[in-house]
Design goal:
The protein is an alpha/beta fold. Helix content is 45%, strand content 16%. The protein has a single domain, classed as Spore Coat Polysaccharide Biosynthesis Protein SpsA, Chain A, CATH 3.90.550. The strands form two sheets. It has a seven-stranded mixed sheet with strand order 3-2-1-4-8-6-9, sandwiched between helices.
């Protein structure tokens, strides 16, 4: 019986998926200790672009679903798992060889129910990708609990005890966008008394260059997802604030971090514009409905 099941949703990105699978073929974890489920979320058949020898080198299962978004695709893959742990990443990510070993060691070190790992930016010269990495790193440092647990576990690098994932019901499938469904699951997990830790050594490389305009559009979509997040918490009766340690207001704290790090003016400007785009996306989704 494998210890880990890895689930990867994919949608019309066969070249990214190929690079992802090539990285998985280099995992140091013994093949019998893990299983890989790739869920095609209603896109074109990606396997014509994947060499048979690469597929054959992996403990791989292919799954096809209708196009209903990554939350549904991830849940469909998780439903097939029989392992102790579930790990999720995306088709534009490449895990380091010790990725699963680091997760397993950290699970063994404490009473953790979920572990968040870092996604390293593969394109430091891409301003949108740099800003996205900076903001995620800041949020994971800012939104912490007094016991050291983290609030944000991004779905491109996260692992759960399968029993806890199933008790929680997995990702909320009412989220139609790839935005905030991972935040909602982490919030629900913490609100119910489970533990979520940061595992700094369980690293993946995120191959997603972004222009400034593309990053603004992405933040607009994240703003829309924030409105779905707000509604989901209302349905569940879960409070929006669940005990993160008292810190300065988010945007003031972000400005202080930029100042202390002597970050360039373009990053200040880009984060200001994209945070405005996030706010507009949230209000757009709220008033639309």
């Amino acid at each position: 019986m494998p210890r880990f099941t890895v689930v990867i949703p994919t949608y019309n990105r066969p070249q990214h998926l190929r690079a992802c699978l090539e990285a998985f073929s280099q995992l140091a974890t013994p093949r019998e200790a893990w299983r890989l489920i790739v869920v095609n979320d209603g896109g074109a058949d990606p396997w014509q672009e994947i060499p048979d020898e690469l597929s054959g080198a992996l403990p791989l299962e292919r799954l096809q679903t209708a196009h209903r978004g990554p939350a549904v695709a991830r849940n469909a893959g998780a439903h097939r798992a029989r392992s102790d742990f579930l790990a999720f990443t995306d088709d534009d990510c490449r895990p380091h060889p010790d990725w699963l070993d680091q997760f397993e060691r950290t699970f063994a070190d404490g009473p953790w129910d979920a572990l968040a790992g870092p996604a390293l930016n593969a394109h430091p010269s891409s301003r949108g990708a740099y800003a996205q990495q900076y903001l995620i790193d800041f949020i994971q440092s800012y939104a912490r609990f007094t016991n050291g647990d983290v609030y944000l576990a991004c779905s491109n690098n996260v692992a759960y005890r399968r029993s806890v994932f199933e008790k929680l019901g997995g990702f909320d499938e009412t989220f139609p966008l790839a935005a905030a469904e991972d935040r909602e699951l982490g919030h629900r997990l913490l609100a119910r008394g489970y533990r979520q830790r940061f595992c700094s050594q369980a690293r993946v490389v995120h191959d997603h260059p972004l222009s400034a305009w593309q990053y603004a559009r992405l933040q607009f979509r994240y703003g829309q997802g924030d409105e779905y997040f707000r509604r989901a918490l209302g349905r569940l009766g879960v409070p929006r604030h669940i005990g993160q340690r008292r810190r300065p207001q988010f945007h003031w704290a972000l400005a202080r971090a930029l100042w202390r790090g002597r970050e360039p003016a373009w990053l200040w400007a880009l984060l200001a514009v994209t945070q405005a785009a996030h706010f507009v996306g949230s209000r757009y989704e709220r008033f639309k409905r």
